[in-house]
Amino acid sequence: MACHRVEELLELLEPEWNRASEQSLVEFLMTLAKEAGWEKPFAELSDDVLIYHLKMRHQDKNAAIPGLQKDYEDDFKTAILRARGIIE
Question: Class for domain 3-83, per CATH?
Answer without folding.
Answer: mainly alpha
